[in-house]
Design brief:
Number of strands: 46
Mean pLDDT: 92
Number of helices: 16
Largest sheet: 7 strands, parallel
Distance between the termini: 63 Å
Helix content: 10-25%
Low-confidence stretches: 1-25, 940-959
Shape: globular
Structural class: alpha+beta
Strand content: 25-35%
């Protein structure tokens, strides 16, 4: 509905109704039609009439809130408003505070992602509340949620008419069936042929198979991690043997989708003994930046790979995502990012133009503004035409050469149809504190004769970047000429020390023309290897990338932000394989620079594996100097230095198989024959050391010490000799525990393993429990009211469980209880009701602050947890459950060992928290309990310990 103020303003301007039939002038290359003039003036009227608070609101949100867009008949895009009147927004704040979160919640917002570091909140809010939220003093801006693309190239475009997206329930059923089939095959131990794993053809095409054999390196000692949409089929790939069982996934960052699973399979194919990790890049732009940092600084990843571009990422200055990349590369990580699938000038597949603003002399609307002349010295053309065949659902971005957060030059962007009517627009205010950025999107199913216009509303001329992402600029049927320039690669892949990776097919050609009439797509060399005759994918994005500002906004060439200023970064740097097979449904073949980046990252992992401690600069030198030149002779804008071959890179750096001798869990045998280590005991400690490396561990020895007061270890050191790869050496030590050792206070042992190799020494710490665990668990239950779990919100829900009278714990288990189990998502008789358990991440936090993840996005569309015990000694991991197991009951091994929460004083307040990490389903925490085994006191030995506490609704006792 048009608000009264907006209606009065437009009526006064004569802008509510379209021109009368016959009044419109024909569209020409250097003029706007009367219709366009009137519609743009209507939109500018809203911009000119903004209040201070409204100036902080995204222009499309404001037009939608005021109802103006409904008066512009051709407007097909604009703000994405849900059926319930909500919009997904990014709220940029001075600081994320409890007061801000509370205020948003009271305004009806659903919190989707929170970044304290970058002061950003993604939330779904009522459209009617947007301006009130923007009026807060701690809110800098309310924007339509920044969207992202992965660099996967689909055999059937997502915008194809009639192509139905897989629903959440359909996907859950498919993945559940695939997991059940994989587990069944694993259990039945079928023939080797049936159980054989798939290997990316890129392994062969990059000569990685030869390199592993020749140099004896497999990724040992290196951790390679990926960021993408999600890892929905991780458990299935693990059950198939396509991925190892110990992939390190940041809790709550599992994401939605399977591109991450496919990328991890590629890394594992080429570097099979590298440790793996993952975090989603799709919760928000700020969350993506946070997760890049977490993978390095918390998960300790050496190689990080991603395949994502956020539309707001600036081509001219490192924004928050590129800044996170800068942080991790400065700390020694190697970062590989897809160059993108936005096409290139060489193949005529891009929709990108950049250059200095040229005044066309054509004013726009009734307020202010002059259109940009794309033709420059060659004439006067105020439109950039889009190809009809690539016009469906295309994000179009406009950036200009002002610093981020400090743009005082105001540019606007309009999309018009062949009749001259406005189809979409972006006209935010830039008056000194905003970003130099506008974005719009073409209609979902495209159009005929669509064209773009850039208008300088106010300010000075600047260098512009106009990109139709996955679209194409093409001469129009009515005489408009398309203008294209190189450099569509933008964002964090263009960070100085990142590797931007282009794509070349490893095997069969991409299966469809990018547009009707396009030349054939290239084929790859498989079962041969890449050579100088290899060709880049026709969709691979080109460089270079001109940058005008350092990350902090300092000009690189002060006073010159034109086509002769700034710094030119040669992007992409290298090329790697795509079009490969994985075991993941929908990703065989897997095309796009999304597949290329993990191939390159895996080769870098092999380099580090054979050269521990090699500086990143030397890895870069090796990758670039050994790349096989393809396409245009010498370095070029599409393939960089060329396609990389693993054997050539390793020959350049040199490489040798490295041993990695690590102490494993010791066995303790008390001298008195008892089953437990008690105060005053002397015990034999049998300490195994396993060589997890590629090379022999020569001259291996162990120094075993204890920082626990009064504990003695004899001998202090022992020789283990030479341990071959995959083998284990064993030696015995003797420890003595002082009689004064308190029950439950563990003996800590530090095992330092030394050997001839770059990874030497390794140190492992073990905690040996002291005392006889009580055979009886004390039960402590949550007795409060049910707590609703907010849908798709990192805020989550939590309940507290007080524990008293235990002291130190020998064992901790946790149960989700209930009285009557069913799959009714509204049941009040189960311990945790939820209509989609696979959305949930549950965690348990002890009074000391130690935290363990109990379950982590498992169970698919299964409903409800009831009478289920999570215990470290359970036979089955909860990660293997499918929706067929619902309601989830019985005993399961948790995602993280709960033993990590034992060994300390457990009296105090425990917290069980649940986060719903996906949308569309709800539930509540109702009945949960802790079960804690203490230690048998000497005076009470031989008789049962007292059991403290009663449990609400009768807890399920661990067996």
């Amino acid at each position: 509905m048009l608000t009264a103020g907006a209606a009065a303003l437009l009526a006064a301007l004569g802008l509510v109704s379209p021109p009368a039939a016959g009044a419109a002038t024909a569209s020409t290359p250097d003029t706007f039609t009367a219709t366009a003039q009137q519609q743009i003036a209507a939109l500018q009227a809203v911009k000119a009439g903004k209040t201070g608070a409204e100036s902080k609101v995204d222009s499309k949100l404001l037009v939608a809130e005021k109802g103006v867009g409904k008066q512009l008949n051709a407007l097909q895009s604009g703000a994405a408003v849900s059926n319930t009147g909500t919009v997904l927004v990014d709220i940029r704040a001075t600081k994320v505070s409890p007061d801000l979160i509370s205020g948003l919640t009271k305004a009806g917002a659903g919190i989707r992602a929170v970044s304290d570091r970058y002061g950003s909140i993604r939330a779904e809010v009522p459209l009617a509340a947007v301006s009130a939220i923007a009026a807060r003093g701690d809110v800098k801006r309310v924007e339509q949620a920044d969207q992202a693309l992965t660099a996967r190239e689909l055999a059937t475009p997502a915008t194809t008419p009639g192509k139905a997206a897989e629903t959440k329930q359909q996907k859950a059923a498919r993945i559940s069936g695939e997991l059940q089939k994989a587990l069944s095959s694993k259990t039945q131990q079928r023939s080797a042929a049936a159980a054989a794993t798939l290997t990316s053809q890129g392994d062969r095409a990059h000569n990685a198979d030869i390199a592993r054999q020749q140099f004896g390196v497999t990724g040992v000692g290196v951790k390679a991690c990926a960021l993408s949409d999600g890892i929905d089929s991780l458990a299935t790939s693990q059950a198939k043997g396509e991925l190892p069982p110990n992939v390190d996934v940041i809790a709550g960052q599992e994401g939605d989708g399977d591109e991450g699973t496919a990328m991890l399979e590629i890394i594992h194919d080429l570097a099979p003994n590298a440790a793996l990790g993952f975090a989603s890049a799709f919760n928000s732009d700020a969350s993506f930046a946070d997760n890049i940092r977490k993978l390095r600084f918390e998960s300790h990843c050496d190689v990080i790979v991603d395949d994502v571009i956020y539309f707001k990422e600036s081509p001219f200055q490192d924004w928050i995502i590129a800044q996170a990349v800068n942080d991790v590369t400065a700390n020694g990580a190697l970062y590989f990012s897809s160059a993108g699938n936005e096409g290139n000038v060489l193949d005529g597949t891009a929709g990108h133009w950049e250059g200095d603003f040229v005044d066309s002399g054509k004013s726009v609307g009734k307020f202010a503004g002059v259109a940009h002349n794309f033709a420059g010295a060659a004439g006067n053309q105020i439109y950039e035409p889009l190809s009809d065949a690539s016009s469906a659902g295309v994000p179009v971005t406009l950036h200009w050469s002002d610093p981020l957060g400090a743009s005082a030059n105001d540019y606007d962007l309009y999309l018009l149809n062949s009749a001259g009517a406005v189809v979409d627009f972006s006209q935010d205010v830039q008056d000194g504190t905003q970003d130099p950025f506008e974005i719009l999107q073409t209609p979902a199913f495209g159009g005929t004769g669509l064209r773009l216009a850039v208008v300088k509303f106010s300010g000075e001329g600047r260098y512009l970047s106009l990109s139709a992402l996955r679209g194409r600029f093409k001469d129009s049927a009515d005489g408009l000429k398309a203008y294209n320039t190189p450099g569509v690669t933008v964002g964090h892949s263009a960070a100085r020390d990142a590797f931007s990776v282009a794509a070349t097919p490893a095997a069969a050609a991409f299966g469809r023309p990018l547009e009707p009439g396009d030349p054939a797509n290239p084929t790859g060399p498989f079962p041969g290897s890449f050579s100088s005759t290899s060709k880049a994918e026709r969709f691979s994005s080109d460089g270079p990338r001109r940058v005008f500002y350092e990350a902090d906004g300092t000009p690189i060439t002060p006073g010159n932000v034109s086509s002769t200023g700034g710094e030119v970064r040669n992007k992409p740097e290298i090329t790697a394989a795509d079009g490969v097979q994985t075991s993941v449904t929908g990703f065989s073949p897997f095309f796009g620079t999304s597949a290329a980046a993990p191939h390159a990252g895996a080769i870098a992992a092999l380099v580090l594996s054979g050269n521990p401690g090699l500086p990143p600069s030397e890895v870069r030198e090796a990758l670039i100097n050994t790349a096989v030149d393809i396409e245009t002779p010498g370095r070029d804008n599409v393939t960089g230095s060329g396609v990389i071959l693993a054997d050539k890179v390793l020959a350049y750096t040199g490489a040798s198989p490295q041993p990695l001798a690590v102490a494993k869990q010791p066995t303790v045998t008390p001298a008195d024959g008892g089953s437990s280590l008690d105060p005053g005991d002397t015990a034999k400690v049998t300490l195994p050391v396993t060589n997890d490396g590629d090379g022999a561990a020569v001259s291996t020895s162990v120094v075993l010490t204890s920082p626990t007061p009064g504990v003695t270890v004899a001998p202090r050191s022992k020789s283990y000799g030479t341990i071959s790869p995959g083998q284990t050496g064993v030696n015995d030590f003797t420890i003595t525990v002082p009689a004064s050792q308190q029950l439950g206070v563990p003996v800590v042992l530090n095992a330092k393993v030394s050997f001839a190799g770059a990874h030497s020494p390794t140190t492992t710490t073990f905690s040996l429990p002291v005392g006889t665990p009580s055979p009886v668990a004390q039960d402590f239950a949550y007795t409060g009211a049910p707590v609703a779990i907010p849908d798709n919100s990192p805020v989550g829900a939590s309940v507290t469980i007080p524990v008293t009278g235990v002291g130190r714990a020998a064992k901790v288990s946790f149960s989700v209880d209930g009285t009557t189990c069913s799959t009714d998502p509204l049941s009040t008789a189960v311990g945790l009701n939820h209509s989609y358990v696979g959305d949930l991440v549950g965690s348990l936090t002890s009074p000391s602050g130690a935290k363990a993840t109990v379950f982590q996005r498992n169970g698919g569309s299964g409903k409800n947890l009831c009478k289920v015990v999570f215990a470290d000694d359970a036979a089955v991991a909860f990660s293997t459950v499918t929706s067929a197991n619902a309601p989830f009951t019985g005993s399961y091994k948790p995602a993280n060992a709960l033993g990590s929460l034992a060994g300390a004083v457990v009296d105090g307040t425990w917290t069980f928290g649940v986060v719903d990490a996906a949308g569309g389903d709800v539930g509540s925490i109702r009945s949960v309990a802790l079960h804690i085994n203490g230690f048998v006191q000497p005076a009470a030995a031989g008789r049962p310990s007292n059991v403290h506490g009663a449990t609400n609704n009768g807890p399920v006792h661990p067996q």
